[in-house]
């Protein structure tokens, strides 16, 4: 794996740069870690302390980053590099936060040196080409969604039994799901097993890898000839369950642009379209009605200006996985949520 990584790194270096093996790290703790010497055309060089790990979870990446950075300092190296067969988006984020370089065999790479000045960043795969066959490895499904929403919306500490009540799953399933989230470095458990910390922003982003607004829910694009204002005005009179999501559910303080599409959950999209004076139409749609994959989309919904809107955590994942400028709106919403936790988290 190291030989393969060295070859890939050489191919990414600018013309005139060289990469050669160096001496083993100094000291009992680092002598087994190989070193690579990066040499610029002007003769300036830097030493990278390298560690090779075949499978690295985000939690292991965070721990390895600290250990590798400390080992590089003790070995008087100029930087550190973690090589693996695959590094997830969260694993890469943890390494960058610790200023530890990485390279995986799918093409993900991030290496930065001050002297000689060098910056390499390439994007490979966001999906593990050889995922483990056993254990929970996904946030797909109704029970997982309920657990994620509870972990986001409720401040820790929260116990396994409480999460089981939220999800309707047995405690064994919930415990396995939490073990997975611990390995992803998204939650932290206390001594008695309760969840004492939730990285809710990254949890929402991780959920978005297995959830899709129009893939998970049944979507019915519609055209409302009288425009968006007429749709929202009629929604105030709609007596059946519904909840706005997307741009129109974002707090005004976090809005980045006026919404051009009404996105709304409704139990019966076709009936709702008829009530709203809209017709199913893929071309030129300005209304997107969604049949919820589960009632969890209505959990902790709130009413504002006479309109029912989904919880901010649901809105964030819907924007992240929506079309157009949705992901950019999600970033702004997540930033607002981080600064205003008391406004949405109980």
Structure characteristics:
Beta Polymerase, domain 2, 16 strands, alpha+beta, seven-stranded mixed beta sheet, 3 domains, Arc Repressor Mutant, subunit A, Trna Endonuclease, Chain: A, domain 1, 346 residues
What does this structure look like?
The chain has a seven-stranded mixed beta sheet, sandwiched between helices. It has helices spanning 2-12, 58-74, 89-97, 142-153, 160-167, 171-183, 200-207, 213-216, 228-235, 269-275, 312-320, 326-339, and strands at 18-21, 35-39, 45-53, 79-84, 101-104, 109-113, 118-122, 187-189, 195-198, 218-223, 242-245, 262-266, 279-280, 287-291, 302-304, 307-309. The chain has three domains: 2-122, Trna Endonuclease, Chain: A, domain 1; 142-207, Arc Repressor Mutant, subunit A, CATH 1.10.10; 213-343, Beta Polymerase, domain 2 (2-Layer Sandwich). The relative contact order is 0.09. It has twelve helices and 16 strands. It is of the alpha+beta class. Strand 6 and strand 7 form a beta hairpin.
């Amino acid at each position: 794996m190291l030989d393969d990584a060295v070859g890939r790194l050489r191919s990414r270096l600018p013309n005139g740069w060289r990469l050669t093996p160096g001496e083993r790290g100094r000291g009992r703790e680092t002598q087994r870690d190989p070193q690579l010497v990066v040499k610029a055309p002007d003769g300036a060089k830097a030493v990278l302390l390298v560690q090779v790990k075949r499978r690295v979870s985000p939690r292991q990446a965070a721990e390895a980053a600290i250990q590798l950075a400390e080992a590089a300092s003790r070995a008087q190296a100029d930087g550190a590099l973690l090589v693996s067969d695959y590094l997830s988006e969260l694993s890469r984020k943890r390494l960058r936060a610790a200023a530890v370089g990485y390279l995986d065999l799918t093409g993900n790479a991030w290496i930065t040196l001050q002297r000689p000045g060098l910056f390499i960043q390439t994007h490979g795969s966001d999906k593990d080409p050889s995922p483990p066959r056993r254990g929970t490895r996904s946030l797909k499904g109704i029970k997982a969604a309920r657990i994620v929403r509870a972990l986001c919306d409720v401040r820790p500490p929260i116990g396994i039994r409480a999460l089981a009540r939220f999800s309707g799953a047995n405690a064994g399933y919930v415990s396995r799901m939490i073990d997975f989230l611990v390995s992803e470095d998204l939650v932290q458990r206390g001594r008695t097993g309760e969840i004492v910390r939730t990285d809710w922003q990254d949890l929402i982003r991780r959920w978005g890898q297995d959830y899709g607004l129009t893939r998970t829910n049944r979507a019915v694009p519609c055209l409302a000839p009288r425009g968006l204002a007429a749709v929202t005005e009629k929604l105030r009179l709609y007596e059946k369950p519904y909840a706005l999501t997307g741009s129109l559910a974002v707090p005004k303080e976090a809005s980045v642009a006026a919404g051009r599409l009404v996105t709304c959950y409704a139990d019966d999209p076709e009936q709702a379209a008829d009530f709203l004076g809209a017709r199913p139409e893929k071309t030129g749609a300005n209304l997107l009605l969604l049949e919820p994959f589960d009632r969890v989309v209505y959990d902790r919904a709130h009413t504002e200006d006479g309109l029912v809107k989904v919880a901010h955590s649901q809105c964030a994942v819907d924007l992240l996985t929506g079309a157009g400028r949705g992901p950019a709106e999600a970033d702004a919403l997540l930033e607002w949520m981080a600064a205003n936790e008391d406004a949405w988290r109980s």
